[in-house]
TrEMBL record, chains A, B:
Its EC number is 3.4.17.19. It catalyses: Release of a C-terminal amino acid with broad specificity, except for -Pro. InterPro entries: Peptidase_M32_Taq. It comes from Lacibacterium aquatile. Keywords: Carboxypeptidase, Hydrolase, Metal-binding, Metalloprotease, Protease. GO terms for molecular function: carboxypeptidase activity. Broad specificity carboxypetidase that releases amino acids sequentially from the C-terminus, including neutral, aromatic, polar and basic residues. Belongs to the peptidase M32 family. This is Metal-dependent carboxypeptidase. It is an enzyme of class 3 (hydrolase).
Length: 495, 495
């Protein structure tokens, strides 16, 4: 057995155990009874430590060196090997007891958050969130030393391989140079038009679910390889080849659950389109979170808030809910989909204000990781930042600094990928329409196959065989920038 | 760290990984989309092999020897150590590649069975079942050599620690000496009474579920530590501290789902009553399958087919389904619960004919394991055996040799524990009522606390700190025999 083959076999096992961890995570959010949280945290930790032990096996250093000197490797094997090394570097930076402690503390805090958010009880959440933050900083410290980078970049690299705060500062700086002006102009423009009518509810949950499933079928989601369920915070999870998305329902509107399903389906199509022959290998995984988010936003924001989409979607929704009249026209529902508002909740935000929500979180988490902002001061800093960036102040922490699952579950360094994803989505959709001009007219018929085909070839099937930057450049002919996103906002909201 | 402490730590991890495997198994039967079966089989196998590696770590032999020479161990630690050795013996008997191959083949066959049974396609199932049987025999061979026992006893020990076919032959022989006569007499006796009336359906599934949940609450099931769902074959699964039962519903009768829920709740109460401080240790697990089945049958058959139970249950069912009239009286529903019939399906069988179904399977699987019966001849042998033992012949394999999940999923040597459990249940319930005379009158009020209290103390809380035989003898004052079961059948069906 060559050194590379040995690594391949070892990472096959690791990949499958990670898939198991993915299933546990899905169950925890969707199915698990509340009293099982502590036991589940310990089970999850045992699995994570087992994976960590395999990643930090002392034999790996020699195997990596041996494989890297093997000239017979194919380009794909070489790319896989580079990802194996990246995995190994992340794992060896952190001691096993810290990995185990983090898993327990994160699971415990996440469960507490579910209740504390409902109760608007920041004081109840804070001690557990402090434990999470302490261990996240300890992890960042360990990785930063190994990689020779800042604490924040060490965390960012977990979600966005090769990502640098310096680059994000540049992109977000470009964005911030026109965004406040665009928000105001979009709102002003909107005020000159008739307000969108709200279809009359209530909208039964089973019908909302049926509508979501219709869209999932149209988009090409394979229900023999995935599910749609309900959770507090919508997500796309499960395991490779068994991709499970969630949404949440309110009976006074179907719009949020519908857009949530479209968003998560975008994530799911990426997962289901990854190269199946490399399913359990590092190079067979999704490239990183900004590209992942680009896939959800390309579906939700670019494709499914277009005028063409509502030609398909409006009659379907009217049929399922038995709606009729001016609130149910494609034109009205499209106008509803493009409503811009200075709102409190990130996941409900429109695409014009969304980047402002993300910039806030990015600034705050950088400050907390750097030790420049304490959890005592977080609610105040949040509210100040909301005033400055979005122009509204939350009346309660429930709708303020407690709204997101990310920090309680230990996902620090994740937030900027949302807006990098939005910019990537705009650039990719522009390129896709240029390459396959019939994409919009086919979407109007409910046929997403031309779009999905382009994405399968240019994004999904690439796995992690190239860097995010190389994949985006190859697909669009240029590096990621703000131009396509800016043009998109102008065309849609300011014209 | 002492040798014992080291073993304790290692088995803590193993216990948690087994809990994870339990969750995966639940998901596979209840939630997983069909197209994910192959990937899931591979994930499950990776987890099983990981557990197997930990159980067969070469360091364990010395640690076991060291711990067994440690005079400072408490009696509980010593009992735990004995269970650790038993686990180790089972694991070291079987090579890792056989464990992995079995997991894949079993998962694949189980999924095939789900469809093949629906299609009545024994020919389609047979090749995969042959693979399962081949690997089961290979496993039995490896264990039999290690333990110096027969192939069948080696398999039996996996489900019934210390169980011997010789003892089962004796118990089942005692049973067979009176059972055919009892079946005939019970049917004759029944014919002298008015037939039970069947309440008119349909019975909506949501109401059946609501009724099942009412019973689960009454029995003391903690819904913050478990769930009720649906699967093709009802079971009790999940993980320690997160115990999940399933049932299946038909809308023409609520009786089967109700009895299924009561049965699985009996299993669940045992799991939830195990000593929590030892949750992930071998001695903290349920003792074995005959004791497990005794707990489900004590609830379903002994307690919940009594006249007292229907004083509580009949008005509740009538209220939920809006039923009234003679079919809904406690007396009629009780008579319905005691109907004896020579039926085709084991899981629907009454407690008089049930042992005949089990003796058939026990004989057939012993013959198949011994190599005296081929899968080609199984359907014929099944039908012959049904004629002889139960007195009816299935019109199709779907309702014949394909009806059970056990063989397709690789659980050979399991069946006899059902009837050993039935005998144990009778003996335990007799002892419980002698010790706590108010048990029946409290059941009539829907109060199961006195019964649950006795079970918690005498069975559930014992974990695996003593042998099945010692637990039964301590709880009832005598070793397991057929007398209590025989008396029970006489009193209920022949008087």
């Amino acid at each position: 057995m060559t050194a590379y083959t040995s690594l391949h076999t070892r990472f096959d096992r690791i990949g499958k155990l990670r898939a198991v961890a993915g299933m546990l995570g899905w169950d925890m959010a969707v199915m698990m009874p509340t009293g099982s949280a502590e036991a589940r945290g310990a089970q999850y930790a045992a699995l994570e430590v087992t994976i960590h032990e395999k990643l930090t096996d002392p034999a790996l250093a020699d195997l990596l060196a041996g494989a890297e000197g093997d000239n017979a490797l194919s380009p794909q094997e070489r790319a896989n090997l580079a990802e194996i090394r990246r995995n190994w570097l992340h794992a060896t930076a952190v001691p096993a007891d810290l990995v185990e402690a983090s898993a327990i503390v994160n699971a415990d805090c996440e469960m507490t958050w579910r209740q504390a958010r409902a109760d608007n009880d920041y004081a109840g959440l804070k001690p557990k969130l402090q434990k999470v933050l302490d261990l996240v900083r300890e992890t960042a410290q360990a990785k930063a030393e190994k990689f020779g980078c800042s604490l924040y970049d060490a965390l960012l690299d977990q979600y966005e391989p090769g990502g640098k705060a310096e680059d994000i500062d540049k992109l977000f700086g470009d964005l911030a140079s026109f965004l406040p002006d665009y928000i105001q102009r979009a709102i002003d423009k909107q005020a000159t038009r008739p307000a969108a009518l709200l279809p009359d509810g209530p909208f039964p949950i089973d019908k909302q679910k049926a509508l979501g499933e219709k869209f999932m079928h149209a988009l090409g989601f394979d229900f023999t390889r995935g599910r749609l369920d309900v959770s507090t915070h919508p997500f796309c999870g499960g395991a490779p080849g068994d991709v499970r998305i969630t949404t949440r329902y309110g009976t006074d509107s179907f719009f949020e659950s519908m857009m949530g399903v479209l968003h998560e389906t975008g994530h799911a199509l990426y997962e289901l389109g990854l190269p199946a022959d490399w399913r359990d290998q590092p190079a067979g995984q999704a490239r990183g979170m900004s590209l992942h988010e680009s896939q959800s936003l390309l579906i939700e924001m670019q494709a499914c808030r277009s005028a063409e989409f509502f030609q398909f979607a409006a009659p379907l929704a009217a049929e399922i809910f038995g709606g009729s009249g001016p609130a149910w026209t494609a034109e009205n529902l499209h106008r509803r989909a493009l409503t811009v508002e200075r709102g409190l909740i990130r996941v409900n935000a429109d695409e014009v204000t969304y980047p402002a929500h993300v910039i806030l979180r990015y600034r705050l988490e950088r400050a907390m990781i750097a030790g420049d902002l304490s959890l005592d001061d977080l609610p105040g800093a949040w509210n100040d930042g909301m005033q400055e960036l979005v122009g509204v102040v939350p009346p309660s922490d429930k709708d303020g600094c407690m709204q997101d699952i990310h920090w309680p579950m230990g996902a620090w360094g994740y937030f900027p990928t949302y807006t990098m994803g939005a910019m990537t989505a705009a650039q990719l959709f522009q390129a896709a329409k240029l390459a396959v001009p019939e994409i919009p007219v086919e979407i109007a018929k409910g046929n997403f196959a031309p779009l999905l085909g382009w994405l399968r070839t240019n994004i999904h099937g690439k796995g992690s065989f190239a860097s995010t930057a190389d994949i985006v450049t190859a697909a669009t002919g240029k590096p990621l920038g703000v131009d396509a996103f800016r043009t998109h906002l102008e065309t849609r909201y300011l014209a």
